[in-house]
Write a structure and sequence with these properties.
Helices cover 40% and strands 18% of the residues. It is α/β, with parallel strands linked by helices and 422 residues long. The chain folds into 3 domains: 117 residues, Rossmann fold, CATH 3.40.50.2300; 142 residues, Transcription Regulator spoIIAA (2-Layer Sandwich); 126 residues, 3-Layer(aba) Sandwich (Rossmann fold), CATH 3.40.50.
């Protein structure tokens, strides 16, 4: 049996790869850091190494060097997983028999294809059908967007993505809204639909009555309504109804605490497409606990942050938030200043105000969309009009926080965007 050594600091990612590779009859060994990985390279001879590029310091390089020094492992192929990696660094990996570098969040299809090719094996039951799965969190409500089909490998990934979000946002009693769009399901999709619902229930460890499915697909509604196991799951036609229905399950205190969520979510349907085109794209501030400074420092180390806002107070808030963990922040007072300096101010995350003199945030987004090296953008704004929010998301932003904002809101968005596994 072929053996794969997985060296990655993220426990959920190790668990996911162990699950998927074992499912395909591969023996899997796991290591959570470079030191443990080096020990397993020395004491064994895996047929493939999957290595996290971002494990502490340059530990990945020490693993590669030890692999090359060992005559039993010198020719073992390596797949690198990285949150980010400089293109120049990729060339430095070539002497160590690195076959491929994949950036996180993971796309399972090409990754498993490379694993199969490196090991000269064939993966069974690999689902090549279309399917998009996205997960967003606001407060303790998990929004799951399903579009273009129900891909089983993506649904496996969903289990770990939900658990990652539950851990990050410290959600004790998850409530879930599933939005199924641009997907026409039929009888043949029944096993995958059942897998979707079971995955959500298992991952959230939540009661079915805390789950709402937002869809206009009659098959989905009929299936859920006729299954005793899912009789407490409500199928609703609109987000407003889903939120009102879900909040009705909560206590009075929870209703008051979540009142702003119902008002601040954005959903629009494209009636001209012939089907649903649902987009949930407005996240109000997340009021979760602030993670430990050491964990934050490790997750966001070496990252470069930029804030563009004409409000000096907001600039200082963002600066203080990240400088507390040793991450410098570059500030600009308007979009014009930022665009003038953009060539010499590469960054990993951009916080951007919309209303600014001279050049506003939407104009900055328009320019960024013409560039290949644009950073992910989080909008910080007091504007809550639906049209403006939707337009910003259509221009490619990652998140939208409404002012006033809190440091923990900024932290959580930064971690979710910059430190993804799934």
């Amino acid at each position: 049996m072929k053996q794969v050594l997985v060296i990655d600091e993220a426990p959920l990612l190790r668990e996911y790869l162990n699950f998927k590779l074992s499912e395909n009859e591969l023996e899997v060994d796991l290591a959570k850091n470079g030191l443990e990985g080096i020990s397993k390279v020395r004491n064994g001879a895996p047929d493939l190494i999957i290595l996290d590029y971002n494990i502490g310091g340059n530990e990945y390089l020490e693993v590669l060097k030890q692999k090359k020094l060992n005559p039993n492992t010198v020719n073992v192929p390596v797949i690198i997983l990285a949150r980010r990696i400089d293109q120049k660094k990729i060339f430095e990996l070539l002497p160590y028999d690195v076959k491929k570098v994949y950036t996180k969040p993971l796309n399972p299809e090409p990754l498993f294809g490379t694993i199969a090719e490196a090991l000269h094996v064939q993966f069974k039951n690999l689902d090549l059908s279309p399917g998009v799965v996205e997960v967003h969190v606001n407060e303790d409500i998990i929004f799951i967007e399903i579009s273009k089909g129900l891909n089983r490998d993506k649904l496996d990934l969903l289990h770990f993505k939900i658990r990652e979000m539950v851990d990050l946002y410290e959600i004790h009693v998850p409530k879930v809204i599933v939005m199924v769009s641009n997907t026409k399901l039929g009888f043949s999709d029944t096993p995958n639909l059942q897998m979707l619902l079971e995955t959500i229930i298992r991952s959230c460890r939540s009661r079915a009555r805390y789950i709402r499915v937002l869809t206009r697909d009659p098959f989905v509604k009929k299936f859920i309504d006729t299954q005793n196991d899912y009789r407490d799951i409500h199928v609703v036609p609109s987000l407003q109804e889903a939120m009102a229905d879900l909040l009705g399950e909560l206590t009075i205190d929870d209703e008051l605490r979540n009142a702003d969520i119902l008002r601040d979510r954005v959903l629009y349907a494209d009636e001209t497409s012939g089907g649903e085109s649902l987009q949930l794209r407005f996240d109000a501030g997340v009021q979760s606990k602030k993670p430990g400074l050491e964990a934050l420092r490790e997750s966001l180390k070496d990252r470069r942050i930029t804030i563009v806002d004409d409000d000096f107070v907001i600039q200082e808030l963002v600066k203080n938030t990240f400088e507390k963990i040793g991450i410098p922040v570059t500030a600009f007072s308007n979009g014009g200043e930022y665009l003038d300096a953009i060539e010499n101010n590469a960054c990993d995350l951009l916080f951007l105000d919309l209303l600014m003199p001279k050049v506003d945030g939407l104009e900055v987004l328009k320019i960024l969309n013409t560039r290949k090296d644009s950073p992910p953008v989080v909008i910080l704004s007091s504007i809550t009009q639906r049209d403006t929010v939707v337009r910003a998301f259509q221009m490619g932003i990652k998140s939208y926080l409404t002012k006033p904002i809190k440091p923990q809101d900024i932290f959580k968005r930064a971690i979710e965007i910059l430190d993804p596994n799934f």
